[in-house]
C-alpha cells in the first residue's frame, strides 16, 4: 500500500473520522506507556499537557488525538532521541 494512501485513509469512530495512521498511533503510545508502568495522568504530566489529555486521547469516544506537536512531547517524555540528535 502506498504511504500517501495509507495516511489519507479515514476510519469512522462514532460520529467523527480520524486518519488511519492516527488510529494506529494511539494504541502504540498506550503500549509504550504501559511498558513504562505509567498512568495516563503521569504521561500527561511528563508531556506537559493537562492531566486528562492522554486519557481523553486513549478514549475513542473522545475527539482528542495526538498532533505533530505531541509527537515531540512524547519523544521527550519517553526519552527517545530524534535522528537529528544522534
Automatic annotation (TrEMBL):
Any Pfam family matching the protein: HTH_3
Span of domain HTH cro/C1-type: 29-59
Official protein name in the record: Helix-turn-helix transcriptional regulator
Lineage: Bacteria, Pseudomonadati, Bacteroidota, Sphingobacteriia, Sphingobacteriales
Amino acid at each position: 500500500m502506498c504511504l500517501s494512501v495509507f495516511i489519507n485513509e479515514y476510519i469512522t469512530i462514532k460520529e467523527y473520522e480520524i486518519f488511519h495512521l492516527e488510529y494506529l498511533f494511539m494504541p502504540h503510545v498506550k503500549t509504550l506507556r504501559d511498558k513504562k508502568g505509567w498512568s495516563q495522568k503521569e504521561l500527561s504530566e511528563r508531556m506537559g499537557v493537562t492531566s486528562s489529555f492522554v486519557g481523553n486521547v486513549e478514549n475513542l469516544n473522545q475527539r482528542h488525538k495526538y498532533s505533530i506537536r505531541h509527537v515531540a512531547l512524547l519523544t521527550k517524555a519517553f526519552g527517545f532521541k530524534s535522528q537529528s540528535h544522534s
